[in-house]
Specification:
heterodimer; A: about 260 residues; mainly alpha; Cytochrome Bc1 Complex, Chain C; 2 domains; two-stranded antiparallel ribbon; 12 helices; about 65% helix; B: about 475 residues; 3 domains; 3 strands; about 0% strand; globular
């Protein structure tokens, strides 16, 4: 087609894609090396390393769900205000009146799915023995990512500010007050006092730091919002980069070097 | 306030489910027919991986039986579509005697024992289970069980909660992948025993990532996006009443993925169930590659080559993690009481709590009252009296953590100890002991009504 040829021969197109379309072997190699998004992959790969019955695709799905959560989450942030006055009503409006309010549904179901797929990814990596040398460290990074996935979901659980949200977070965060030494109802906390003055009280223990108060309130909402939207995603993104980089450096997803 | 077991909408919805079953089994029949003796001559040239389990292709009887089953589902579906006018009189529903029998069996001890037995059976009978026909029959049975159960109001209330839908599907997905693992692992075990090359090593040439992987990823992304959009349209995300710090819901549940931990609260105090044990799970997972010294089984599915590792991990993941999440989600109701799947969540259900501490049992057996520090004594004296009161539990716990590992090292784990070295072995032993401490406490609770092995509420130190 003439017009397609014209576009592909133009200076603009060529400045973006520095090589012809990947129709032949040479250009299929080149595309992997010159495209920013594709350079994550190697140029060629062993067949078993990409067979679905072997990989279950769970790691890739988890990463894709992380991207879905990021995109839908950013869209939700344009609308949602994390204050006692607005939080619940904003979610209600997302459900009932807002155009594209379905972003909330996709965000929530995507989050549930991500928790499940990250477990299954770990299950597969274990069952194929892929954590064995030289990939021990990448397994550790993976465990951290799994925990952060749960924490992402946990912090997001509070944001709708309905009964389901605050009581689930209350139940979950009540554990923190029993932290040994650092919770005011934990074993050993009594030892930490200076001259009869307790260092660990319900106004200074692990739970207080987590909630920003003695109970789940507005400070908690703000704290969880920042954790959910900024802090944990940044840590996760960094760890994902390391995780993927190590997959490449350790010689693919499994098998000894 | 008890709702109707059957409504026209439910019957109509179930009709679609049975139609899906009819189609699924129709496809199954068709595949069997295509691989069967009738077609075998034409296709003997390419014997796919799928068809291998039918030695010479399934018999005509096999195909006939499945086509009858498929037709049966179709008729049931038709009955559902045409039977919506008088829901109360509709006949296809879970029989009452089954419901009451299942509810009568509802008990945490039975549930946990059942899940362990199921786990052991899966491992022992893996050679039978990996047969696709067996798996297909099991899938059919579980879907029909679900469908029949949906005719019960209380079952629907709990399973149909939007947040619980992913957990139900997780059950099927985890089951499928466990099946897939065993299928591949048994295949490889046989290959290794016969000295043949592994499945993963056959046909393992290098291919270009564009197009082989890039297109798989693209298709996967499109399919997932479609799935999420459809899921979002069909099922609305839950939104309850606005938050209120004074109205405590009963039960108050943590998010579903933490319900296994919440279930542990029945047996341990928060500092153990909520802090120590979860931390140990994480440390244990991270330590796993450093304590598994077995070099085999890297990069392929196998069971015989790494039985201990696989069984330990699966025990932790299936009955302990997934199993307790299911228990916490579907079977724990108001006041964290245990309810059968067809039982209404009655907030007034009473459960007799007569759990006793080990120290109380001990001093009662001795015919004495537990030692109490004289009033007005200093912190040191009080501490000594508490230690004296709880000495038996403290000794037992210390023995469990300090004496048992070396004992294991010279007995059943002698070979492990020799190969792993001191530090690796003691990390492994302690992780195993911590993993076992939940089932052990469960057993003690169920058999002796034991509350705490060590009970020092003075220091918030109860085990």
């Amino acid at each position: 087609m003439k017009i397609g040829e014209y576009i592909r021969e133009s200076q603009i197109w060529k400045s973006i894609f520095r090589h012809p379309a990947p129709y032949d072997r040479r250009n299929r190699v080149v595309v992997m090396l010159t495209n920013f998004f594709l350079h994550l992959h190697p140029v060629s790969i062993q067949k078993q390393g990409i067979a679905l019955s072997y990989t279950w695709c769970m790691g890739g799905i988890t990463f894709f769900l992380f991207l879905v959560e990021t995109v839908t989450g950013v869209l939700l942030m344009f609308y949602y205000r994390p204050t006692l006055e607005h939080a619940f009503n904003d979610i209600l409006a997302l459900r009932d009146v807002t155009t594209l309010g379905i972003m909330r549904e996709i965000h929530r179901w995507g989050a549930h799915a991500m928790v499940i797929t990250v477990w299954l990814h770990m299950y597969r990596v274990f069952l194929t023995g892929s954590y064995k040398p030289p990939r021990e460290f990448n397994w550790v990074v993976g465990v951290l990512l799994l925990v952060l996935t749960l924490l992402l979901s946990f912090t997001g659980y509070l944001l709708p500010w309905d009964q389901l949200a605050i009581w689930a977070i209350t139940v979950g965060s009540n554990m923190a007050r029993a932290t040994p030494f650092l919770g005011h109802e934990g074993p050993g906390a009594q030892i930490l006092n200076i001259g009869g003055f307790d260092l660990i009280t319900n106004g200074s223990d692990a739970r207080f730091i987590l909630l920003g108060g003695r109970f789940v309130g507005e400070a908690t909402l703000n704290r969880f919002y920042i954790l959910h939207c900024v802090f944990i995603p940044l840590v996760v993104a960094t760890l994902i980069a390391i995780h993927f980089w190590r997959v490449r450096k350790d010689g693919g997803i499994s098998q000894p070097l | 306030m008890h709702g109707q077991d059957l409504t026209s909408e439910v019957i109509f919805g179930l009709g679609w489910l049975y139609l899906l079953l009819a189609v699924m089994n129709g496809i199954w029949t068709y595949r069997a027919y295509m691989a069967g003796p009738a077609r075998h001559d034409h296709e003997s040239g390419e014997k796919g991986h799928e068809g291998e389990h039918w030695e010479d292709g399934p018999s005509l009887a096999y195909t006939t039986v499945w086509s009858i089953i498929s037709m049966g589902y179709f008729l049931v579906a038709v009955a559902h579509f045409s039977g919506t006018s008088d829901p109360e009189a509709f006949l296809i529903r879970m029989p009452e005697f089954v419901k009451s029998a299942v509810d009568r069996l509802a008990d945490p001890a039975l549930y946990f024992a059942g899940s362990i037995i199921a786990f052991v059976l899966v491992v022992v009978l893996r050679r039978y289970l990996i047969n696709p026909t067996t798996a297909w029959v099991l899938l059919n049975i579980s879907v029909v069980f679900m469908a029949l159960s949906m005719t019960d109001y209380d079952f629907r209330q709990i399973v149909g909660k939007p947040d619980n839908v992913p957990i139900v599907s997780m059950l099927f997905i985890v089951g499928y992948f466990t099946w897939l693992y065993f299928r591949r692992a048994v295949d490889n075990d046989d290959r290794i025993a016969a000295g043949k090359s592994l499945y993963e090593q056959e046909d393992n040439d290098k291919v270009l990532v564009w197009p082989d992987l890039v297109y798989t990823e693209l298709i996967c992304m499109v399919a997932l996006t479609a799935l999420l959009v459809v899921w979002g349209i069909v099922l609305q995300a839950p939104l309850e009443e606005p938050a209120s710090a004074v109205k405590t819901p009963n039960p108050s549940k943590a998010p579903w993925y933490f319900l296994g931990l919440q279930e542990m609260l029945v047996y341990y105090d928060p500092w153990m169930a909520g802090v120590v044990l979860p931390s140990i799970i994480l440390v244990g997972l991270m330590a796993l590659p450093y304590i598994d010294f077995n070099k085999r089984g890297n990069g392929y599915y196998s069971f015989n080559e790494r039985k201990f590792a696989v069984l330990t991990f699966m025990f932790g993941f299936l009955p302990l993690w997934i199993g307790l999440i299911i228990l916490g989600t579907f079977l724990r109701g108001p006041n964290w009481n245990f309810f059968g799947i067809y039982e209404p969540w009655d907030p007034h259900k009473l459960e007799v709590l007569n759990n006793v501490n080990l120290s109380e049992m001990f001093w009662e057996k001795m015919g004495r009252t537990p030692p109490v520090a004289p009033s007005g004594s200093g912190a040191g004296t009080q501490f000594l009296y508490i230690m004296l009161r709880e000495w038996l539990g403290l000794v037992l716990v210390l023995a469990y953590l300090v004496i048992l590992p070396p004992l294991l090292a010279v007995t059943i784990f002698r070979k492990f100890f020799a190969r792993m070295g001191f530090i690796r072995f003691f990390v492994l032993a302690n992780l195993l002991l911590f993993m076992a401490c939940l089932p052990i406490k469960m057993l003690l609770r169920w058999s002796f009504n034991l509350k705490y092995i060590v009970a020092i509420p003075e220091y918030f130190f109860n085990i």
